[in-house]
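re: the backbone from monday

yeah here it is again, tokenized this time
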């Protein structure tokens, strides 16, 4: 039970757990290596509301019993499904989370940016947005991009460019961002520069 409402934890995860997890992991790696590139993932997956298939696929791929997850209030209804399928530990203290799941951009400064000695310990934010084909347009520059790339996102705050500049300023420290909408994902690693298009 979460928030007084029963969650059907028997809603399936991956039909082929090994094969689909491997394919999703490659998709996430590809998205991280090529910031702003749209990647399809989670087709056929039916996670509980409010999660989209791509969001569920990323959780099933990256989260396990060795990781801690922080959920924002809007995504808390999926707690039991995540616990059942991923075996994840949860934390109410966002700076302690390896992964954060949100339906609206949280304050990135509340998530772990890692350390200069261990930047890989930074949190990854899995953010479900309204669309990755419509909305505000952003121009991306940086590692993994031969030239600039353009990404349209519906669901980020109006001052996202400034928020991201502050996140990137501490590189190699900083939060990585995985954006999910429907069966599509795109990634913004902390190394990428984001500007208004």
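seq for it, each position gets an aa:
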């Amino acid at each position: 039970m979460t928030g007084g409402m029963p969650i059907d934890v028997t809603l399936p995860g991956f039909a082929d757990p090994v094969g689909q997890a491997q394919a999703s992991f490659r998709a996430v790696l590809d998205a991280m290596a090529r910031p702003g590139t749209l990647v399809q993932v989670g087709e056929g997956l039916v996670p509980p509301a409010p999660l989209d298939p791509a969001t569920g696929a990323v959780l099933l791929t990256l989260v396990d019993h060795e990781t801690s997850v922080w959920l924002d209030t809007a995504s808390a209804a999926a707690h039991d499904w995540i616990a059942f399928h991923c075996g994840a530990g949860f934390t109410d203290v966002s700076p302690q989370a390896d992964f954060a799941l949100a339906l609206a951009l949280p304050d990135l400064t509340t998530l772990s940016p890692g350390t200069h000695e261990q930047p890989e310990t930074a949190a990854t934010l899995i953010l479900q947005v309204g669309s990755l084909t419509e909305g505000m347009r952003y121009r991306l520059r940086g590692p993994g991009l031969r030239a600039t790339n353009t990404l349209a996102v519906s669901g980020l705050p109006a001052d996202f460019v400034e928020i991201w500049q502050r996140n990137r300023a501490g590189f190699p420290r900083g939060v990585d961002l995985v954006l999910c909408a429907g069966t599509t994902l795109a990634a913004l690693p902390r190394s990428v520069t984001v500007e208004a298009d």
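The chain has a mean pLDDT of 90. The chain is about 20% helix and 25% strand.
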